[in-house]
Amino acid sequence: MPRVHLPSSAEISAHPREFALLRQVAPSGEADAEVLQEYIKLYGETSKTLSNDEISFAEFAALFSKPSNSRSETPTNCVGYAARDKSGVLSPFIFNRRPVGPTDVRIQITHAGICHSDLHQVKNEWGGSLYPMVPGHEIVGIVTEVGTEVKKFKPGDRAGVGCMVDSCGTCDMCAEPRGEEQFCKRCVYTYNCMQPDGTIAQGGYSTHIVVTEKFVLRLPENLPLDVTAPLLCAGITVYSPMKHYGLDKAGMKLGVVGLGGLGHMAVKIAKGMGVHVTVISTSLKKKDEALTVLKADEFIVSSDTEAMTAAAGSLDGIIDTVSAKHDLGALVSLVKVDGKVVLVGVPDVPLDLPTAALIFKRVILGGSIIGGIKETQEMLDFCAEKGIGASIEEVSIDYVHTAYERMIRSDVRYRFVIDIQGSLIN
Ligand SMILES: NC(=O)c1ccc[n+]([C@@H]2O[C@H](COP(=O)([O-])OP(=O)(O)OC[C@H]3O[C@@H](n4cnc5c(N)ncnc54)[C@H](O)[C@@H]3O)[C@@H](O)[C@H]2O)c1
Ligand SMILES: [Zn+2]
Ligand SMILES: [Zn+2]
User: Fold this and answer.
1) ipTM associated with this complex
2) 286 in contact with ligand 1, CB cutoff 6 A
């Protein structure tokens, strides 16, 4: 496996594009030779091959020296809100979107949801953030232009884009029957990710987006656009593990931990499946709403030892959406023998593993990341049938900093959605 020597800060400033690529291909400095060779084919000079196992950053940069050929014949100006560094400050940013290619769909964005992952990445809490960064991967809007080969969409249609905008299309993960592009080694995330043309993908806090048809979702006609936006990340992120881990059967008992954007969607979707839902939260603040508005069946405060003891061993599974460090052992105590605890929250530090608690009840501890395009469409159709949209607070783009602060304080019911159409003018 080739080892790439990590660059000095001077080298990073001299080769920002190649450094961004290095963070994508080999975040730790170790590059899988096969993947590296594939990237060279995509981004670099096809004639060059890897000669040895240890390469300097200068050699790495040389392999990818092909100038960006970003299909920029007639790029279109796009206005967005971008972070320039990890300070958490976003400001207006004008950039180019590629022109509509034969398989592309151009969407005028009306709304974009604010996911906690936006905040983690803006602040570089997971490392490797690429700036300038226009966040946003819960995108809805109206199609304004389609390429000559596009079949599913026409101008005027409602359309959505979630966390991914492209993938290789041919690997085992992309191909049928899996269709789980989120696991493709060449998956292109909607923002904070290098695209095959050498530019950084920019997300939905912006006036429009151009995406290949395969990654554009049909939106239900019976749901308003603003409450549909959060389904594209929060919705699929909780729907997919419920299906995958078999926690979607009517009558099953599911615990939902953390009642933010993901958590409230987990309650609504599980109730739509006929599942019995217990919310596990750090405070009583959201209890009444959880029971009456979100229709959860039970509500437990995690610090209430009596209630936690009474509920011990009662759940078939748990979807854990918590965004910060927390006690996994307390959650494992709530599930039955053979219960499943599924993590979808991504704290910036590892959690301690309650080894004995897992072993003595043969508990499965799992994880899950968003869901493939096929499953995202299935989830949208399910939500349309059940009339499930997110519970949102609509805000203007210049409210984004306050929204981030309130999200950190858990002061959000239950998803902020930016009114892009009404507050960001191109
Ligand atoms: N796996 C995936 O594919 C995926 C997709 C989207 C988001 N995420 C991650 O899921 C997490 C939640 O995202 P969200 O948008 O719902 O965020 P959110 O801020 O809306 O909700 C997080 C919830 O966690 C609770 N919480 C925070 N700190 C806690 C603590 N120490 N103990 C207990 N509860 C605590 C908050 O009260 C809140 O209810 C984030 O880490 C996000 O990055 C993962
Ligand atoms: Zn998200
Ligand atoms: Zn693939």
Assistant:
1) 0.99
2) no
